[in-house]
Design brief:
This protein is mainly alpha-helical. It has helices at 4-31, 36-41, 48-57, 64-76, 90-125, 129-143, 146-160, 173-207, 210-217, 222-259, 265-275, 278-306, 308-314. Its main location: membrane.
């Protein structure tokens, strides 16, 4: 069982990362060229009184630290502000689009875990044709960029065979899963290829380790050694790689959402950057940082649950 202090320390570290990241995100937006009031007037010539009114409405005349503190306290209460582009609440915009991105990332993560680890174990425990086929497939998957993989999948399975829809996110649970199948595959394939290679290498290294060879020499069934020692110990480096790639799926999903015209936060962020919609960009950025931190926390906990020596050394 993972000690409580181990979890508490990881949570405190996550909170510290989120606070520092939120400050950097807020500062970076105001350090960027342009300003909210210039976007709002759309290049029109307005009087100084109008500009002053706009700055007062959005508290742009307050000191920087005051603006940051007000923004941070509002975010902690679930208030991300108002979009400058369409005057909608940013929280409502995120609520409408976040489910699509979360479903896409979740499906891609499942594909990475099942396909990547499964093929890696298969290649690591078997020689010959199986190993060579998995190595070839992983090399191809790693070499193909996400956007190109999306185009290939659309051409073959949507345009050619007509098995899957090309555009949109669908309505309802099952229809949405059907619409997100190809995007999730395009998003997951490069990462699944890397995970398969790492898993194969880790399995083979553990199979040649001294404790595995001695266990088999003492008469312990190979299937038991494989299950309790080789695969379990191999999951230490694999869990780290899987966690990093799953965290990276959130950023990579933007490309896939654009290719398949999905209504996720990726397309929302692209449009917000183009329009200099500061509130939306800040909200999406802090969500990405939080998601990455949470996934890393889960990887740490998984790492500690697999190998008790890890948590013992970090307490």
């Amino acid at each position: 069982m993972i000690p409580v202090m181990f979890v508490v320390r990881r949570l405190l570290a996550l909170i510290g990362v989120l606070v520092v990241s939120s400050f950097l995100v807020f500062a970076a937006m105001y350090a960027a060229p342009g300003s909210p009031e210039k976007f709002l007037v759309q290049g029109r010539t307005v009087s100084p009184e109008v500009l002053a009114a706009i700055r007062k409405q959005y508290s742009l005349d307050d000191p920087f630290l005051v603006r940051y503190w007000n923004w941070l306290t509002n975010v902690l209460q679930g208030d991300f502000g108002q979009s400058l582009a369409n005057r909608q609440d940013v929280g409502d915009l995120l609520a409408n689009r976040l489910p699509t991105t979360l479903a896409l990332v979740a499906m891609a993560a499942i594909i990475i875990v099942v396909l990547g680890i499964g093929l890696g174990i298969l290649a690591g425990t078997r020689d010959g044709v199986v190993d060579k086929v998995v190595l070839l497939a992983s090399n191809l998957g790693f070499a193909i960029p996400t956007f190109f993989a999306a185009l290939i999948l659309m051409s073959v399975f949507s345009v050619g065979l007509g098995w899957f829809p090309v555009f949109g996110s669908g309505t309802g649970f099952f229809d949405r899963m059907w619409h997100l199948t190809l995007p999730a595959l395009a998003l997951a394939l490069p990462s699944a290829a890397v995970v398969a290679r790492i898993t194969r290498t880790a399995i083979r290294e553990e199979s040649d380790s001294e404790h595995s060879i001695m266990a088999i020499a003492r008469g312990v069934p190979r299937s038991l050694v494989l299950r309790r020692h080789i695969i379990r110990n191999s999951m230490l480096p694999v869990s780290t790689i899987v966690g990093v790639h799953i965290a990276g799926l959130i950023a990579g999903s933007f490309v896939v959402e654009y290719a398949f015209t999905l209504d996720g936060i990726g397309t929302l962020l692209v449009g917000a950057v183009q329009k200099k919609d500061f509130a939306v960009v800040q909200a999406v950025a802090i969500i990405l940082v939080a998601a990455f931190g949470i996934i890393n926390l889960l990887v740490d906990l998984l790492y500690a649950s697999i190998d008790p020596r890890v948590r013992a050394g970090r307490e």
